[in-house]
Specification:
Oligomer: single chain
Structural class: alpha+beta
Distance between the termini: 39 Å
Order of helices and strands: HEEHEEHE
Shape: globular
């Protein structure tokens, strides 16, 4: 496992037809709100992508001072992600493509 994740993780995986993986759509979203990532309060976080995805720590959580305590772990659906960001007083922006 490559620790810390913030110095070892690459871009998100892109589906390739030669892999033995079911196809999926990769959607880009942006968010704003009182959230911190696993590297918060660390010079180098003690987590790898694999550890975070396995649930060792959430990908996002609200700051200690936030009014609402919100945790967004790996595997959260888009609709649940949006709901949780709104609960924390944040906003979500989805990429819109017009083909």
């Amino acid at each position: 496992m490559d620790v810390p994740y913030e110095h070892n993780a690459g871009t998100p995986y892109i589906w390739a037809s030669h892999r033995d993986v079911e196809s999926y759509e990769l959607m880009k979203v942006a968010y704003e709100g009182p959230f911190v990532t696993p590297d918060a309060y660390h010079t180098n976080s003690p987590y790898s992508v694999e550890m975070i995805n396995a649930g060792a720590v959430a990908w996002l959580r609200t700051e200690q001072w936030a009014k609402e305590r919100v945790v967004i772990p790996a595997g959260t659906s888009l609709s649940e992600f949006i709901r949780k960001v709104y609960t924390a007083g944040g906003a979500v922006y989805k990429e819109v493509r017009e083909d």
